[in-house]
Amino acid sequence: MPGLLEQVNLNGNGLGNVDDDSPTQPPELSVLIVGGGPTGLLSAYMLSKFGIKSLLIEKYPERLAAPKAHALCPRSLEICRQYGLDTNAMRKLGAPREDANRVNFVTNLSGEHIGLLPYERMDSGVLEHTPEMLHNIPQPAFEQFVAKELEHDPNVEIRKNVAYVTSHQIDDQVISTLEERSTKTRWQVRSRYVLACDGAKSQVRADLGIKSEGEDGYETMMTIHFKANLRPVVGERTGMLHWITDPACSGFIIAYDLEANHVLISNFDSKKHPADTWSQELARTTVAAAIGQESSCVPPTPNRGLGRVGDAAHSFPPTGGLGLNSGIADAHNLAYKIAAVHHGWATPSILQTYQDDRRQIALVNSAQSVKNGKKIFSFLKTLAKPFYF
């Protein structure tokens, strides 16, 4: 989930190629957005609603298929609704409520059922406090939904397979160097602002020398995306999350679509199984142990990029569903402030309140995610130990 402001004051027009000696000025635009994930796309969408043009660059040629984040909280959906996104249509992209309203604790999917918890508040009583109930929507589906809204938006240009390289500031302008990854061609653009929405390993943040604060990873996790119909396996024990205590696959399955689409996030001993030794065979064995029986699943794909749920401003563990929602709130907070300066409603000093507004919330959410993770993995390890009488 993306994080936001690297305030960069820019102006410009055209594409200045840095691979030649041309004296032409780099092109001018209002906002350069680095990263085409949910925060980058929503930032472009919201800025457009204020009449602000942006160039969004994404280093990958195609959207990554692994589902990643999924829980859109009421506030995130309220923000989408406020800016005109059809949240009713959006809900059709996610798991039905009856399949996603529980958290199960099991030895494995075919094994002993230890207990269950409700998955947040998903009852009708929630609607007394908000028009938008929490809903589970796979991140790629959410991204595609927003991207579709931008396809014919004259205020937004999206360029894929383009990477951010570096930038420098001249007075109230930021000159950014970009690279077309397939040809290695580089060019420059000028903008008033640059939004760093390029994830936990943000190149913009690294380029500016901004270091992350907080704890290093306390667990090594393998993320495996696999296809299988698990409905016959779980039967009536449906749920959004299935926490598994078997030491061979300790972790949890996220059931984005019970009949087709899942992710297993499994806790691994990095000394016994270093990440560079992870393989299709290990992933298959781990999924089979988590399911607890032979299954007809499409070969799983192990993801070696740990910490997949994160953003350029705040990187959280995947225990709490707080990363994506924090990023959406970041984009919401910053978009109207940029618009206020752009249209002369406020002075540039209002941009400094972005950090005041969002930093403490990010710290609290990060701490809560870490706390959740430590508690749940400690609990799973305790359950996995044999009891002697």
From TrEMBL:
<keyword id="KW-0285">Flavoprotein</keyword>
<dbReference type="GO" id="GO:0005739">
    <property type="term" value="C:mitochondrion"/>
</dbReference>
<feature type="domain" description="FAD-binding">
    <location>
        <begin position="309"/>
        <end position="362"/>
    </location>
</feature>
<dbReference type="Pfam" id="PF01494">
    <property type="entry name" value="FAD_binding_3"/>
</dbReference>
<dbReference type="GO" id="GO:0006744">
    <property type="term" value="P:ubiquinone biosynthetic process"/>
</dbReference>
<dbReference type="InterPro" id="IPR050641">
    <property type="entry name" value="RIFMO-like"/>
</dbReference>
<protein>
    <recommendedName>
        <fullName>FAD-binding domain-containing protein</fullName>
    </recommendedName>
</protein>
<dbReference type="GO" id="GO:0071949">
    <property type="term" value="F:FAD binding"/>
</dbReference>
<keyword id="KW-0560">Oxidoreductase</keyword>
<keyword id="KW-0274">FAD</keyword>
<dbReference type="InterPro" id="IPR036188">
    <property type="entry name" value="FAD/NAD-bd_sf"/>
</dbReference>
<dbReference type="InterPro" id="IPR002938">
    <property type="entry name" value="FAD-bd"/>
</dbReference>
<feature type="domain" description="FAD-binding">
    <location>
        <begin position="29"/>
        <end position="289"/>
    </location>
</feature>
<dbReference type="GO" id="GO:0016709">
    <property type="term" value="F:oxidoreductase activity, acting on paired donors, with incorporation or reduction of molecular oxygen, NAD(P)H as one donor, and incorporation of one atom of oxygen"/>
</dbReference>
